[in-house]
Amino acid sequence: GVEEVIDPLMDHDEAGRGKEASHGEERLGDDLRFSGISPIVYTFGAPRIGNAAFRSIYNGLVPKSFRVVAARDAVSSLPPSISYRQMGREVWFDDCGHATFVMSWAMRQILPNRDNIAYHPCLWYYRLLKKNCELVGLSNFPSTFRMDPKVAAFVETRIVG
């Protein structure tokens, strides 16, 4: 699935680990890792869900957490408050399916605003991931969408086409 698209391009050593994490949070993350649980989380168009302290704890516990964002998806910038923070590491897709993993402040300033709800549906994200697979040379994009013939037909004719 998604890991075949994103994982080969990522450097997991610095996967979203905030410098502000305290010693206690590091220990809690180590306890989770030593227990044999090492989750990999992908979110699509997720809103901001916590403050800086929550983000530090989350990123410490789930260092392999990736926040996939479509170019102008408005939901990914909600709520519009400096108190809320995003979790994980951002993977930003433009309309052509090109992925950016480390976005500078300057790059954020020249890109289109995230102000369009039409970029939020799951099938839009599917379309971008499929385009990215084609760009990197993966001919068969593995997806649960293809398992249901009705959904596959809809995706191929209306969204991907």
Can you walk through the features of this model?
- The structure is a single chain.
- The protein is α/β, with parallel strands linked by helices and 161 residues long.
- The chain has helices spanning 2-6, 23-34, 52-61, 105-110, 122-136, 149-160; strands at 41-44, 65-70, 89-93, 99-100.
- It has a four-stranded mixed sheet, with helices on one face.
- α3 (52-61) links the parallel β1 and β2 (65-70).
- It is globular.
- 20% of the residues are buried.
- Mean pLDDT is 75; it is low at 8-26.
Give me the Rg, rounded: 17 Å
Uncertain runs: 8-26
The fraction of residues in strands falls at 5-15%
Major sheet: 4 strands, mixed
Number of contiguous helices = 6
Total strands: the figure is 4
The N- and C-terminal alpha carbons lie at a distance of: 20 Å
Instruction: Assign a percent range to the helix content.
Output: 25-40%
Succession of helices and strands: HHEHEEEHHH
Q: Which class of secondary structure composition applies to the elements?
A: alpha/beta
What shape does the CA trace take? globular
Please give the order of strands in the largest beta sheet: 1-2-3-4
Overall pLDDT score? 75
Describe how the helices and strands are arranged.
Blueprint: H1 2-6, H2 23-34, E1 41-44, H3 52-61, E2 65-70, E3 89-93, E4 99-100, H4 105-110, H5 122-136, H6 149-160
Parallel strand pairs: 1-2, 2-3
Antiparallel strand pairs: 3-4
